[in-house]
Amino acid sequence: MEALYWWIIIGTLFLLIEISIPGLFFFISLAIGCGAGGISTLLGVSITLQYVIALMTTLISLYIFTALFANKKPELFPFGNI
């Protein structure tokens, strides 16, 4: 149960960093990975497998967020060219 608290603390820390630095989706991926690690703790898997699950979930969510938001570039002049 102690590992679950660590996953929650670290995941919350990543969420707070994500909120304080908007525009980056890197830390939200880490928070999602920590959430998956916490869920795997509840399922009773070993700590090594928890790390692997957290890492794989982080990489998958980072890939998905990159695929969703990579093509959206901010416009310099949203109301047309000057």
Tally of structural domains = 1
Q: Per DSSP, what share of the residues sits in E-state strands of 2 or more residues?
A: under 5%
Mean pLDDT: 85
Poorly predicted sequence stretches spanning 5 or more consecutive residues? none
List how many beta strands DSSP finds: 0
Main structural class: mainly alpha
How many helices in DSSP terms? 3
Supply Rg. 16 Å
Description:
This protein is mainly alpha-helical and 82 residues long. Helix content is 72%, strand content 0%. The chain contains 3 helices and no strands. It starts with a helix and ends in a 13-residue tail after the last helix.
Features:
single chain, 82 residues, mainly alpha, 72% helix, elongated
Give a short overview.
With 82 residues, the protein is mainly alpha-helical. The chain contains three helices and no strands.
Any chance you could write out the topology, listing elements then pairs?
Layout: H1 2-20, H2 26-42, H3 47-69
